[in-house]
Specification:
heterodimer; A: about 110 residues; mainly beta; four-stranded antiparallel β-sheet; B: about 130 residues; seven-stranded mixed β-sheet
């Protein structure tokens, strides 16, 4: 089973600043990596797939990069609605699909 | 417009069997390439993938929970059902159903992506006596 590890667990950033979230896979997952955003009481929302492709309707301030075992989600200029929990998910080596434990992005 | 909605009991007792239903609209599970998965999230914790069923009836399960899970579909009703046997308090979680995105290459051939483009709102299941 591919273990996904996200860092940091909590990230404190001021509105308007850049946020950089990391996700590491225990083995190569090629570019088969997705990112999701989850707000309290809501289901996850797909942000990025294929490591770097934005899903439909996702603002351009969200960008993804990486391949193999190291991935990054960058939010270029944080808006108030971006403070949430972010999960990465690999879909290369399955079953099972596996998720990271999440990074909570909070207001500094 | 794609929507999914989970339904089932909010409370089950230990050792009982849980049955959850995912009712969806905006797509058909009889369409080649369409797949639906179940995913759960324990309170304050990470997401855990449970099972997937494909348009052709193929089923896939979490390796750690495979002996307890059964996923099935009723294409005529646009529903996917998940059963989980021998429920335990550690199974207390919000259970989501989600559609697996389908992609097409330049030749028009489809392939199943593996990530989840639409999710239901989730249903909280508590296991307690």
């Amino acid at each position: 089973e591919v273990v996904m590890t996200q860092s940091p667990a909590t990230l404190s950033v001021s509105p308007g600043e850049r946020a950089t979230l990391s996700c590491r896979a225990s083995e190569s997952v090629s570019s088969k990596l997705a990112w999701y955003q989850q707000k309290p009481g809501q289901a996850p929302r797909l942000l990025i797939y294929g490591a770097s492709t934005r899903a439909t309707g996702i603002p351009t301030r969200f960008s993804g990069s990486g391949s193999g075992t190291e991935f990054t989600l960058t939010i270029s200029s944080l808006q108030s609605e971006d403070f949430a929990v972010y999960f990465c998910q690999q879909y290369d080596n399955w079953p099972p699909y596996t998720f990271g434990q999440g990074t909570k992005l909070e207001i500094k | 417009q794609v929507t999914l909605r989970e339904s089932g009991p909010a409370l089950v007792k230990p050792t009982q069997t849980l049955t959850l239903t995912c009712t969806f609209s905006g797509f058909s599970l009889s369409t080649s390439g369409m797949c639906v998965s179940w995913i759960r999230q324990s309170p304050g914790k990470a997401l855990e993938w449970l099972a997937r069923i494909d348009w052709d009836g193929d089923e896939y399960y979490s390796t750690s929970l495979a002996t307890r899970l059964t996923i099935s579909k009723d294409t005529s009703k646009d529903q996917v059902v998940l059963t989980m046997t021998n429920m335990d308090p550690v199974d207390t979680a919000t259970y989501y159903c989600a559609r697996v995105d389908i992609r097409y290459d330049s030749s028009g051939r489809f392939y199943v992506s593996g990530y989840f483009d639409y999710w239901g709102q989730g249903t909280l299941v508590t296991v307690s006596s």
